[in-house]
Input
Amino acid sequence: MRFGIHAGPQDCTLADLRRLWRVADDEGFHWCSVWDHVYSVSDLADPAKPAFEGVATMAALAAETRRVRVGCLVFCVCYRPLGVLAKAAVTIDHVSGGRCELGIGAGWNEIESRAFGIPFPSIRDRLDLLDETAAVLRRLFDGERVTFEGRQVHLADALCEPRPVQSKLRLWIGGQGKRRLLRIVARHADGWNAPFLAPEVFRDRNATLDRWCEREQRDPRAITRTVNLGLAVGRDAAAVRHQEENLHLMFGPMADLVRPGILVGTPAQVVDRIGAYADAGAEWVILALRAPFDWDGLELFVRDVMPAFGR
Output
């Protein structure tokens, strides 16, 4: 089992984020990532809450760290032209010395899209765009000159130079839709991420992905399986109750929705819960942390949970 930290750049300062990134880099985490929103998602009704842009924040993460893999879960394919996203990813790969991991998804936040005049097509069209984007990004990163005429993507002799530092800049796709999304994962992705699923639901989606890999004639072992989980860990029952109450500060109206995917309990209980995700097929657990960050809980996780998995 590998561990990561995923923190939305919202409702906090860059100093808070830098502190968190240094914990990830210094304490044995394998991965650290941001997300891609222009509004805070803790309260979509309040656009005045602060939120930093994803590409720039990911570049800052790359510059601040030295060891962890640097990712985004996930860039919305509607928010930028494909060439701009490709060039941003390669630039971050150079900034990080070859540690960039590019995550993409179909997007869901219609409120922020409409506010900033970003087209927000139907889910069918967004999934078409995701499918074509993934196919073309792989070719660009591999050094091809790409001419492509799809339903959503149109390239004419496009070239992405310089090439990434690493020999293969991996593509990640986020989501859990069984009919189309997971088929796109099977077709194109090097890594798959799903947020806030209970272990039994993750097991079901993981099995669906395996079936799509068979249909697409893809080795399922070629796709890293990861899950984003919240954290409410405490030394004893009273501390755990306090941590659970704090989830509403972090997740706002979405607290109940994400509750099945929160690691709740003492360190021993959290170890058991992570074991259930491992049994369901998760290779990595990525802690999805939101401000106000729980520094004591994170320290407890590093000290008393990670060593149970050889970290």
